[in-house]
Amino acid sequence: MGPFDPSKQGFQTLNEVHPNQPYQSYHTESTNSYNNYDSNYQEPYVLNPPSEKPKRRCCCCCCRSRASKIGCCTAVLLILLGIGIAAFFCWPRGMPKVKFEQASFPNTSQAESQMMKWALSDPPPTNFKDLTLSVDTDLHLLVSNPNLIDIKMKNITVVGKYKVDGQNVKIGEGALKHSVSFKAKGSTPFSLPFTLSYNPTEPGSTSALISLFEKCGFMDPSSEGSIEISYEATLNVALISWTGIKPTISNNIHIDCPISPHNVPADVLPSLRELLTKIANSYQAI
């Protein structure tokens, strides 16, 4: 490569300055560079704002502050504790036991009057279809409640039946006049109103009536004794009444005769015994 000659005037070409170096057209490279600009052009990078973080789903107050978490857990524990205590006291320990004490008859004069009117009718009756007979009765019961809470009865309905000739015949029914509560872990006495009645349309009612007259000594004084009645009671318990569940209990009880021949006037009793015996024999002969 030759040195630069300052004695020469004008411009010196690259070949003159560097005779051994091939000429390169920088203009061409520059032109090519600009021609390639479009092909290498890239869209400017757009910086998007940061997206919002997804909201956390909270259960109760568990994603809030520490104090709220403690309060939430305390509330849950108290609720569970309350449910546990309620379940402990309300969980049934057993069915209340019912013990029959006795039966009383507040007013038998109406039934005795009905019988006298029927027996003294003219002409004398030949059957029991015209006999209307009903006796108000109070069943005195003692209920033992083994549970830890009082049990309130909204109502108790009872149906009484008398067994004769292998058939259970309905002879009465009753229900509470007001609600009653049986105290926890104790015994509660109460009275259940009940009505003994004769219904001629009830199947087997005539046989039941004749048997009751015999048991009460109207036909034979030596046969006078107590009457065995079976009952079935349906309990409407306030605590579970919303479920529609109504437990039932049943038992057999013995009661005294509601009507005694000793209350019949002495001058009427012989003819009454004769009439009852005649009707009973004619019925049994059928």
From TrEMBL:
Keywords: Membrane, Transmembrane, Transmembrane helix. The keyword Transcription regulation does not apply. The chain crosses the membrane at residues 67-91. Its main location: membrane. Signal peptide: none annotated. It is a single-pass membrane protein. Residues 140-201 form the Late embryogenesis abundant protein LEA-2 subgroup domain. It comes from the Eukaryota. It is found in: Membrane. The keyword Ion transport does not apply. It holds the Pfam family LEA_2. Gene3D superfamilies: 2.60.40.1820. This is Late embryogenesis abundant protein LEA-2 subgroup domain-containing protein. It comes from Basidiobolus ranarum.
